[in-house]
What we know:
It is built from 22 helices and 24 strands. Its EC number is 2.4.1.25.
Amino acid sequence: MDTLSQAFYLHGIGYEFTKYTGEYVVFAPEVRRKALSCFGINCDDLDDLAVRNFQLDIEPWTKLVGAVTLVTAPDNLLHVRVASQLVSKPLTITISVLDYQAEFDLATAKETGNYRFEDSYFLELAVALPVLPAGYYPAKLQLGDIVTETELWCVPATCYQPKQLGRVAGLSLQLYTLRSDRNLGIGDYYDLRDCIEHAAKAGLQYVLLNPLHLLFVDEPEIASPYSPEHRCWQNPLYIALEGAIALLQDTQQAIFNAQLSEAQQASHKTEQFIDYSQVSTTKLAMLKAIFRCFVEQGESEPFTRFKHDNTKLLQELKTTDTDFTAFLQWLCEQQLNECQQAAKAFGMSIGLVNDLAVGCGERSAEYQANKSLFAQGAHVGAPPDPWAEAGQDWGLPALNPQQLAAQNFAYYRQLIKANMQSVGALRIDHVMALRRLWWCFTLEDGQKSGCYVYYPFEQLLAILKIESHQYQNMVIGEDLGVVPPEVKSALRASGIFSNILFYFEKDHDGRFLGHEHYRDDALLMIANHDVPPFVGWWQQQDIDIRHTYGLISTEKAASLRVERDTEKAKLVDWLKAYGRDEVALDSAPTAVYASLLETLAASQSKLLTIQLDDLDGATIPVNIPGTDKEFPNWRRRLNGTVADIFSRNQHLLANVMQLRKGHA
């Protein structure tokens, strides 16, 4: 292998991939060179490349262990690398945090690998450690005169699994869409608590949320929860003002409650789309006034402790008023935690399911504070697919896997910790990012291109396993699209639930797959935020909207309507195969939806997720992928209140719960 090819391999630059059409595609040399240059490497400097290759390939064999060492259950094997002449010496391992020390005879250890470099011969040997608590521990290894320190990761075999989960159902919603008499034009945490109560009474066991990440406070119209300012913090527009007011003294509470009542009456809640600028101005002004009174009466000890515990993360936001920013985030943490506690108190087995976006924007505080961890000139995106033949550039900077590893993955650990707090499960958007990401960049000739870059899969999976046990969180991976078989099998072996979207489960002839083909360890949905709600899909209103907004031509719209008619006919056939003879092409969309939901309720997938939009009979999508300002994405409100929606669907939900129990 020549020096450049070796550098491609050692930096995880992909060689080939299988396109959605089944076509085998090999990346051109200039594409791979560009990807390597995004690591900050000069591809023409072969001497520098040789040094880097040595550091990544040979040098690790000269050390007992690396900076991070994984010990994974159930085998709990610690792998060490030693020169062959040192095998006769005893190995001492000390983990001071756990008061653990042991000595091992390497002469009897199992050989798991070897490497010859020039005149040196190295062995990889495995020694078995006892079962240790999941976590990260400083450890010291000594072999003769060689002393090496490492961060020992004790990794469970799988992510956390709730006991006796069975086949349950839950709700998915976009928090900002919730309507209520008391909010200020955007759904908030008190609306969520109300929704949890209704859902729990209906027998639902969890509520899947949109990403709650902090967005751009100074630019409220940047509304996508998937292009956040910082993924470790929450959007303060979700704060329920009543909870903030309750922190004040009685006289102040009376004043602010009166102001809140006026603001509730003045909010533009009857309109179809949220005016984020108006909501942000009103809410943040009231929160700032509440904060001033809060400070005047003397900071509480919990708030002071919160600031102390999150000093570094708060500094990443670089705001002019750090204390006010901390106050908002403290309120978010409190109120989200109250929602999870309410879910458990109402009997939900899981409670809230958080959603972690795949990345952050280049203008975001998260990126700016961690810029050294990202590649140069590369964005995250997707290869060509039926919806985007040229591929997709999501505009999100790509993490540099080498830099991620260089800091012992502290950035990713912090990200997972922040998003597992106060919830019962975490859904990871585009979970393939654990293994590989499509990097988008511009070649020297100005042409847009891209390729896959591979990430340290084993270490990232280990973090998910450890943190899920620390926080007792289930983990769900959004694995829609083209996912390599080895990734699917590794995720399943790690206890990470799959994510099934009914619309996409088809055979090569476009027929919907029978639900008996679905995985049991899966979160099953009819629709999500990237596809139209069912009634809109059945009535083809998503096609009409795209045509109205000039996103597709008249000819394309006509073609899509023909395709949709075919899809609807196939859905009717699918339902009839399960004995739902009451459904026909001229049936009301709500009746078809009910039949579909009840049929899926009998599937083996453990997590059946019912979209609140579908129960509401929504026809307008909350997001049209590939659009930004062309369509008012992430702004559409629900038609009715949570109480109205659950009242209208009481019979349907009861049937679904009965079917789930009957197939538990």
